[in-house]
Amino acid sequence: MDTFVGLGLQQTHDGIKGLDDDGRISRTGTVWTSSAHIITAVIGSGVLSLAWAIGQLGWVAGPIVMILFAFVIYYTSALLADCYRTGDPMTGKRNYTYSDAVQAYLGGMKVKICGVVQYVNLFGVAIGYTIAASISMMAIRRSNCFHEKGHQRHHKIAAPSESKVMKRATLVSVAVTTVFYMLCGCMGYAAFGDAAPGNLLTGFGFYNPFWLLDIANAAIVIHLVGAYQPDMAGLKFFSKEIRIRLCSNKSYSLNLFRLVWRSAFVVLTTVISMLLPSSTTSWAS
C-alpha angle 122/79/15, rounded to 5°? Predict the structure, then answer.
């Protein structure tokens, strides 16, 4: 009890005040904070290619496909929200990861299959991030070159369940991102027509004001580097850590498998990104 008081926690008949039913610090997220997290996680550098995508599909098929995907995303996200707790939506066992949910509801080989699909998708996303970040870095170099040498040179809420909150948050975030995507795609296509570039920040053909374009491309690089984080939480059987003593009262936890995996992951995705054709090769000169 003294420990609980020291931590600012109180013992109640339902458990420890300040902690959730799983022993972790109480969640304080709301529909609005969840929506904000989803929106900022979903909207990324992909919007730069929407004008080109709308240009390929046309004014009719383009917006229809985007709205259709919005419904698909909301439906599948709602199903995933229902899987957050196994059994009772208020008191059931929490599934912290997608793999945990698959294990709880499907089990067996399906867990391994889903794990393979997840990590194959992770490789694909990482490759795409590497290419997009390199294109933006090259755009910074190119715009500066044009500027210098001229254009002649090259909270927990009362009593609804987490699934209901996440469904509402998903609905809000999908609506906001769909409107944002429609604006980026349709306005870009309206401005450039069939000549809409594959990337609005790097395929524009003009470089003034160069400082504004540099800031925008640098933001894309920072965004992608931050998102480029391979997660090994699902592989619990490789979670053993080695304690390395730094001094008499300090030590460092080293997970050799995580170190090797992440290093190999970055090297492999970077090599594959370099082998894939992209517009960066034509900028090297």
Answer: 95
